[in-house]
TrEMBL record:
One of its GO terms (biological process) is siderophore biosynthetic process. InterPro entries: DHB_DH (IPR003560), NAD(P)-bd_dom (IPR016040), NAD(P)-bd_dom_sf (IPR036291), Polyketide_Oxido-like (IPR051606). SUPFAM superfamilies: NAD(P)-binding Rossmann-fold domains. It holds the Pfam family NAD_binding_10. It comes from Rhizobium tibeticum. Residues 7-139 form the NAD(P)-binding domain. Signal peptide: none annotated. GO terms for molecular function: 2,3-dihydro-2,3-dihydroxybenzoate dehydrogenase activity; oxidoreductase activity, acting on the CH-NH group of donors, NAD or NADP as acceptor. This is NAD(P)H-binding.
Length: 191
């Protein structure tokens, strides 16, 4: 498969990219500084982009064209000089989902448990908004709740991108949970 990884320079994104590459996939990473990223992962193609600036579907159209899957490993823990949570984790994802309505790649969303006592924190609020928008989008998708140990995430993402992974559909919404030692994988398709 030809797979685009958002946040490919981060801890989870770089591990996911390396694993997918080792499994024989064509991998493209999206990051703010590809020249620095090539030092870490020289064998993947790099696209220079800042998610916080990709707020319209047309910003994404050429980026996702030709990709079978888009894996969103991007995330920022808090607003700061280089990161704006609402733009990066919510608004950019809405624009991606709008662009994906035409190209129809599989969308793999690496997220977090967004409910509970800390559910109102900006990090979790923006993750939840993106998760809910993706679930409502009608796109073929897999959503992976980040395990307590991020080391398992590349394995889960690999499963999400596997062409043999069944993606059931129903007239409303169907969710299948596959449990492993450290993670939950949910797959569904909405019509």
């Amino acid at each position: 498969m030809n797979i685009l990884i958002l946040g490919a320079t981060g801890f989870i994104g770089s591990a996911t990219a390396a694993r997918l590459l080792a499994d024989g996939h064509r991998v493209t990473g999206l990051g703010r500084n590809p020249s620095r990223a090539r030092l870490k992962l020289p064998d993947i193609k790099w696209i220079a982009a800042d998610l916080s600036k990709m707020l319209h579907a047309e910003d994404w159209s050429a980026v996702i064209e030709g990709h079978d899957a888009v894996v969103n490993c991007a995330g920022a823990l808090q607003d700061g000089l280089a990161d704006e949570l609402a733009a990066t984790q919510h608004k950019a994802m809405l624009a991606l989902y709008a662009a994906a309505q035409q190209a129809r790649p599989l969308i793999v969303q690496i997220s977090a448990r967004t409910n509970g006592a800390a559910g109102d924190l900006p990090f979790l609020t923006t993750k939840r908004q993106a998760d809910e928008a993706l679930a409502a989008s009608g796109l073929l998708m897999s959503s992976c709740a980040r395990p307590s140990s991020s080391a398992a995430t590349p394995m889960v993402v690999r499963r999400c991108c596997a062409p043999s992974l069944p993606c059931p559909s129903a007239s409303r919404s169907f969710m299948q949970q596959v449990r492993s030692q450290q993670s939950r994988l949910m797959t569904w398709r909405r019509r």
